[in-house]
């Protein structure tokens, strides 16, 4: 992220809820560390959204080039967050035809969350 984006979007503290396969909450994507849910911190890098769960070494990375859409919901992958907005990144993994949807929640104001979404859309060309 450039310094201008850093001013608008603070540190992305929050949580990873899981990744659904083909929009079925009971079908969870398990490759490359995407199975385990958890709280952590994310950031927008030059290549994509990076999210590292606490007590883990390697971050989850969703490249911008693989993101196909962004939606919001109140629950994701069988988990309800008491009405808090869930940011859903629709994407595809390299060499995998399945439609994936990763769910995140971030401790951001509504305006900050909208700026985050607009930044991701711009970088992903969607």
Describe the structure.
- With 126 residues, the chain is α+β, with helices and mostly antiparallel strands.
- The chain has a single domain, classed as Pleckstrin-homology domain (PH domain)/Phosphotyrosine-binding domain (PTB) (PH-domain like, Roll), CATH 2.30.29.
- The protein is built from two helices and ten strands; from the N terminus they run H-E-E-E-E-E-E-E-E-E-E-H.
- It has helices at 3-8, 110-124, and strands at residues 12-21, 24-28, 38-44, 48-53, 60-63, 67-73, 75-76, 79-80, 86-91, 100-106.
- Strands 1, 2, 3, 4, 5, 6, 9 and 10 form an eight-stranded antiparallel sheet that branches. A two-stranded antiparallel ribbon has the order 7-8.
- The model has no long low-confidence stretch (mean pLDDT 91).
Principal-axis shape equals: globular
Q: What is the makeup of the main sheet? A: 8 strands, antiparallel
Radius of gyration, rounded? 13 Å
CATH topology: PH-domain like
Proper CATH architecture: Roll
**How many structural domains can be distinguished in the coordinates?**
1
Structural class, by secondary structure, is alpha+beta
The beta-strand count equals 10
| CATH superfamily membership | Pleckstrin-homology domain (PH domain)/Phosphotyrosine-binding domain (PTB)
Parts with pLDDT < 50 across at least 5 consecutive residues: none
Order of helices and strands: HEEEEEEEEEEH
Short description:
The chain has 126 residues and is an alpha+beta fold. The protein contains 2 helices and 10 strands. It has a single domain, classed as PH-domain like (Roll).
């Amino acid at each position: 992220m450039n310094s201008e984006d850093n001013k608008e979007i603070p540190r992305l503290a929050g949580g990873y809820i899981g990744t659904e396969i083909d929009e079925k909450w009971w079908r969870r994507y398990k490759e490359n560390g995407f199975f385990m849910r958890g709280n952590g911190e994310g950031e927008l890098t030059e290549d994509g959204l990076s999210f590292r769960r606490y007590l883990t070494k390697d971050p989850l990375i969703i490249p911008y080039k693989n993101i196909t859409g962004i939606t919001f919901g109140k629950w994701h992958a069988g988990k309800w967050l008491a009405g808090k907005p869930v940011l859903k990144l629709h994407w595809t993994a390299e060499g995998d035809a399945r439609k994936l949807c990763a769910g995140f929640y971030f401790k951001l104001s509504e305006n900050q969350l909208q700026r985050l979404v607009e930044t991701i859309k711009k970088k992903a060309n969607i």
